Amino acid sequence: MTSTTHPMLALTDEVRAALADGRAVVALESTIISHGMPYPRNVAMAREVEGIVRDGGAVPATIAVLDGIPRIGLSADELELLGSAPDVAKVSIRDLPSVVATRAHGATTVASTMRLAALAGIRVFVTGGLGGVHQGAASSMDESADLTELSRTDVAVVCAGVKSILDIGLTLERLETLGVPVVGYRTDEFPSFYSRTSDHRAPLRADDVETLAAMMAAKWALGLEGGIVVANPVPEAEEMARADIDGLIGQALAECDTRGISGKDITPFLLGRIVELSDGRSLETNIALVRNNARLGAALAVAHAGSRA
Ligand code: PSU
Ligand code: MN
């Protein structure tokens, strides 16, 4: 198989070779490193997750923009830079042109990681939580570009659902409107990131990666552009009780209001504040669910590569 890579992307040799051979590759995002977790746990998590993907038989490709160049696959030093440098911007779709034009560093969100992964030919992407429709969106209109990107870019996104910092019901409604399949993995309930449940059912369910890979193949063969959300609940031993976490989230949301935090700063502020308010417990749960997603994402990438062989 020949692979044509977009001329603006820089792939590592390892990722380039894997894609050219049709082997399994898993994309990983970088906003979770730069803006989603504190240093140095963020860097340790990024390295560990790459190891889990490798152990699962796939090649990890962490995606970010460095000196204006979209990078597909990063070195250990580059992960360290993303986790520790103060000048790494949070880059969603609308920010990509500017970070490239000004040759700056950028950590990519779910939306921009999806787009760069797809340009490179990667179809499976592992993250922690998706962005979505924020609480109060009826007046703020704050809805993550992750949702619109899912409607147009052909990548399966493995996540632990949507946090209750967002309006989970409205997020699921928008995903339905946008034609995005949302599949609970071995669950009937849509998970809420820190917890295995929410007050919402998963619209679809799959119990093995072969079924997920078959859904990807069917969607794209039908010309239905856009992604698939694979919602993988946090392991039971690591989940937080909804009563506990929802109280902390409510407090963090109220502080967001009084401090006048808005726009792209909301999610990083809330994530950081929830770690503080939970005395670090939420960080442990966050890392555990990313590990769990990496295991599933690697298996899905292997199944997807096998179904195309
Ligand atoms: N949810 C998390 N951790 C994260 C994010 C969301 O639990 O790090 C990040 C992801 O990169 C996601 C982004 O794509 O926040 C959404 O930000 P916004 O709402 O500004 O689009
Ligand atoms: Mn927003």
Automatic annotation (TrEMBL):
Database matches in InterPro entries: Indigdn_synthA-like, PsuG
What is written in the cofactor note of this entry? Answer: Binds 1 Mn(2+) ion per subunit.
Determine the domain of life of the protein's source: Bacteria
By what name is this protein known? Pseudouridine-5'-phosphate glycosidase
Annotated function:
Catalyzes the reversible cleavage of pseudouridine 5'-phosphate (PsiMP) to ribose 5-phosphate and uracil. Functions biologically in the cleavage direction, as part of a pseudouridine degradation pathway.
Cofactor needs: Mn(2+)
Q: Which reaction does it catalyse?
A: D-ribose 5-phosphate + uracil = psi-UMP + H2O
Q: Does the keyword Manganese apply?
A: yes
Which key words tag this protein in UniProt?
Answer: Glycosidase, Hydrolase, Lyase, Manganese, Metal-binding
The GO annotation for biological process reads: nucleobase catabolic process
* Single GO cellular component term: cytoplasm
Binding sites annotated in the UniProt record for Mn(2+) = 142
Q: Where does substrate bind?
A: 90, 110, 144-146
Q: Where is the active site?
A: 29, 163
